[in-house]
Each structure stands twice: as structure tokens, then as C-alpha cells.
Design goal:
The chain is an alpha/beta fold and about 450 residues long. A 7-stranded mixed beta sheet has the order 4-12-11-10-7-5-6, with helices on both faces. The two termini are about 35 Å apart. It has 2 domains: about 160 residues, Alpha-Beta Complex (Aspartate Aminotransferase, domain 1), CATH 3.90.1150; about 270 residues, Type I PLP-dependent aspartate aminotransferase-like (Major domain) (Aspartate Aminotransferase, domain 2, 3-Layer(aba) Sandwich). The chain contains 13 helices and 17 strands. Bound molecules: 4'-deoxy-4'-aminopyridoxal-5'-phosphate. The site of 4'-deoxy-4'-aminopyridoxal-5'-phosphate (PMP) has 15 residues, from α5.
């Protein structure tokens, strides 16, 4: 029963592990875009286990691939060759452009980013890494420095050599105003070429590289192509391309964290960085890669991977037969069911509907995103002041009670994050919109 888990949680789980809902439920079952609780209640899942269930809960093809593998071989480590690993790396790299052809298979996004950071340092011979303010790249000890969000850092001797550049946030950034022309939100940036605000943020990065990072020590810039955890922030057009050029000039690599934006979620491209016309040196991926099965990857060039040679390297679980079978099935389903295209079409429809709601509810300050990676920011009506977390929670909890699970985040905790399994359809959007509309009405009335 729920009460029993209350006590077990208090007795045996760390207090830092929090439940997102105040009036939670036990999730017992999932199918495609639906989750079911201990009382058989059904929820539309718009958060996909934090942007992870890419092709749908318990997708039959993925379940089938895993079942077949479980009966054949679970594990042997990659010190032996097993066929699934080879099939998978061939298929995965066929999805990556340019020379990004060497795959390290690991088990989580944090692990992938840790390894990417090691590779960048080994290849460049440099020590310092830059990421964006308000970013989240993981919470291992090493990554507490990389993650640009204060609340994830403990009072420890956080590893040195991490710098954070200003988040190019069109809605809340100090040079905000110019919306992302890459966004599918209509009425975006009208700059004829790259957005003028992009240049201002790039200039700020150049000041950091020139004046703060010690000369000749830059190993890499880490960036997502849409910042996920802190509110689905899209960058002004041209920012990533120019930031990349600049970092290269200072001897560093560009590492694309595709943990949230990869695998077709942004609709127009399989990888988020492709929307920005940039070619990373290293790409990290996790979450959607395994539809919930714990797996992740770092993909880079032969030249960069060669810098690792001569060091002993073992990853016990990385690329094991179960993970690679699941990974292959996920890629097959994305293709067979045209889920990238679905993200584009259903995502555009979702944005349209959210913008209709924005017209009648001044509490909605901003709607943004691309494909099925969307965000909606609540403000105090008539201002840009973030709505308080307590007030956002009223809407958030109410939506759950009406059958819709959604993400929450942003620097001020006032952003609803919509990142569902990529198989949702327009009817699901209509249902979600009616629930959101009702929850806002309940809150404001
Ligand atoms: N990078 C990004 C962009 C993420 O959103 C996350 C997880 N929220 C991570 C890295 C870390 O992934 P994991 O939780 O699998 O370690």
C-alpha cells in the first residue's frame, strides 16, 4: 500500500531523494504514452521518466528484443566479442554525421559526460572545461563542477577547472528579446542572419576565454542544443555555431550533450546539434537511447579516441547484450514508426494549442521548444516575474489528479516541461490541453 512505502522511504531511502508529487501514487504499469497507478488510474505521461521513454513504455518490439536476449545471453563484458554489440555500433554510427564513428558504451548520462570530459582533456592536453550557466550535465563528483547549477553542488572541494558562461536565454537573459528563429514557435526572431543577441552572448564567452580561463588551458565547451533541466531554453540562432568557432580558436573541443535532445525528439533532425549547423567533436547520449534501460554512449572521432590509447579502460556493463539489443530495437522503432516525424508534427500542433491557451491565460508568460521538447513558463500575470513554486505546484498537482503527468523545472521552478514518449498523438495533445486549461482555471478562479 502507499502508506507502507511512506514508512519504507523514510527508513531506507535518502532524504535527498524526493517525490515530485506531494500526493504521490505507486506507478505499477506502463504502456506506450500511458502509466497506471496502484488503483488502476490511467495517466497520460508527458514527462517520459525524465525524457527517457522515447518510443513508449513497454513497447512490444523493445520488450520482445529484450525477452529474446535474456534467454540467450545476459552478460559477458566487452572483453569478449558478442554479435549484438557489433550490430548496434554499426547502426548507431549510421545515425551520426561526419567522422563521429567511434562509440564508447556506458551506463548513464553522468558517466558519458565524465568520459567525454576525460577524452577532451586527453586529446587536447588541456585541463579546463566551460559549460553554460544553469546547465545540468550530471551529478557525479567530477560533474558537480561541470553542471552549471548551484543547487546540485554540495559544500565539497568541487574539482577545479570548470567555468560557466552566460546562458543565452531569449526570454530571461539580459539581452533577451530576440526569440529563437530555430523555434517552431511562430513570430520568432526576425534577424535576417544570425540573431544579434547570439553575438552578445558569444562576446561574453570570448571575454571568459580571454580573461578567466588560463591561457592555453581550454579542453572543451559542453553544451546541450536546447537546455533541458532548467526550463527548455532555446538559444538564439547562430549562438552554438559561433561559440564552437570561438572554442576551437582557443584550442578546445565542442562536446554536444544530446542526453535529452537526441534520437529525433526535436523533430527536424535526429540530433539537436544538427538544427544549429554545427559538428561536435564528441557527442554524449543517454536517456532515450534505451527507452528506460540503463545505457548511454559517447561517440567521437577515431583521432580523439586515439588519445585514450595506452590507458587501461574497462566498463563492465557498457554495451552488454541486453543493452545493445534494446538499443537496436529502439532505433528500429524510431524508424519504423517515423517517430522523429511524429515529434515534428505533433510537437507543432502542441505548440499551436499552447499558444491558444496563452492568449486566454496571462499566467502563461512563454511557450517555447522544438519537436516534443517543449516548455511553458508561468509568470505573475502582467509581469515577467516567475510564478512562485507553491503556486505552480497547485496547477501541477491538479493536472496529475486529472490524469496528466508533466515535468517541472526552470531556474525558478516555474516551467512546465513537456517531453513525452515520442509516440503521442494529437488526441493526447487535446486531452493534455483541456486538463491544463482546467487546472489553470481552477487555480485562477
Ligand atoms: N545531461 C543532461 C542534459 C541531462 O538532462 C542529464 C539527466 N537529467 C544528464 C546529463 C545525466 O544523466 P544521468 O541522470 O543518466 O546520469
Amino acid at each position: 500500500s502507499y502508506q507502507k512505502t511512506d514508512k519504507l522511504k523514510a527508513d531506507h531511502l535518502p532524504s535527498v531523494l524526493y517525490n515530485i508529487y506531494k500526493r504521490p501514487m505507486l506507478i505499477n504499469q506502463g504502456y506506450k504514452q500511458w502509466l497506471f497507478d496502484h488503483e488502476g488510474r490511467r495517466y497520460l505521461d508527458l514527462f517520459a521518466g525524465i525524457v527517457t521513454v522515447s518510443v513508449g513504455h513497454c513497447h512490444p518490439k523493445v520488450v520482445g528484443a529484450l525477452q529474446e536476449q535474456i534467454q540467450t545471453l545476459w552478460h559477458c563484458t566487452n572483453i569478449y566479442r558478442h554479435p549484438k554489440l557489433y550490430e548496434y555500433v554499426e547502426q548507431l554510427t549510421s545515425k551520426l554525421p561526419g567522422d563521429l564513428k567511434v562509440v564508447y558504451l556506458v551506463n548513464s548520462g553522468s558517466e558519458a559526460n565524465d568520459l567525454a570530459s576525460i577524452l577532451a582533456k586527453a586529446y587536447t592536453g588541456n585541463l579546463d572545461v566551460v559549460s553554460l550557466q544553469s546547465s545540468y550535465h550530471g551529478c557525479s563528483y567530477g560533474l558537480m563542477g561541470l553542471t552549471g547549477t548551484q543547487s546540485y553542488r554540495m559544500k565539497l572541494n568541487i574539482p577545479a577547472g570548470y567555468y560557466h558562461t552566460m546562458l543565452p536565454d531569449p526570454y530571461r537573459g539580459i539581452w533577451g528579446g530576440c526569440r529563437d528563429s530555430l523555434s517552431q514557435v511562430p513570430g520568432a526572431c526576425s534577424c535576417p542572419g544570425d540573431c544579434v543577441t547570439a553575438d552578445k552572448y558569444v562576446h561574453q564567452l570570448s571575454e571568459l576565454l580571454e580573461n578567466s580561463v588560463p591561457k592555453g588551458r581550454l579542453a572543451a565547451l559542453f553544451a546541450e542544443s536546447i537546455q533541458g533541466v532548467n526550463g527548455t531554453v532555446q538559444f538564439p540562432k547562430g549562438y552554438l555555431k559561433k561559440a564552437h568557432q570561438l572554442v576551437k580558436k582557443y584550442g578546445g573541443l565542442y562536446i554536444a550533450d544530446e542526453v535529452q535532445t537526441g534520437f529525433g525528439r526535436t523533430g527536424d533532425a535526429f540530433w539537436g546539434f544538427q538544427n544549429h549547423g554545427v559538428m561536435p567533436d564528441i557527442v554524449t547520449m543517454a536517456k532515450g537511447i534505451g527507452n528506460g534501460f540503463p545505457m548511454a554512449a559517447v561517440v567521437t572521432t577515431k583521432e580523439i579516441a586515439a588519445a585514450h590509447a595506452g590507458t587501461a579502460y574497462v566498463n563492465t556493463f557498457g554495451g552488454n547484450p541486453m543493452a545493445t539489443s534494446v538499443g537496436k530495437a529502439v532505433l528500429d522503432v524510431i524508424e519504423e514508426e517515423q517517430l522523429q516525424q511524429n515529434c515534428k508534427v505533433v510537437g507543432a500542433y502542441f505548440v499551436e494549442q499552447l499558444m491558444q491557451l496563452q492568449k486566454i491565460h496571462p499566467i502563461i508568460g512563454d511557450v517555447r521548444g522544438k519537436g516534443l521538447m517543449l516548455g511553458l513558463e508561468f509568470v505573475v500575470p502582467g509581469t515577467k516575474d516567475p510564478l512562485s513554486v507553491a503556486d505552480v505546484n497547485i496547477i501541477f498537482e491538479d493536472m496529475k489528479d486529472m490524469g496528466v503527468l508533466i515535468g517541472r523545472g526552470g531556474r525558478f521552478g516555474n516551467v512546465l516541461r513537456i517531453k513525452p514518449p515520442m509516440c503521442i498523438n494529437k488526441q493526447d495533445v487535446d486531452f493534455a490541453i483541456s486538463v491544463l486549461d482546467q487546472a489553470i482555471k481552477n487555480y485562477t478562479s
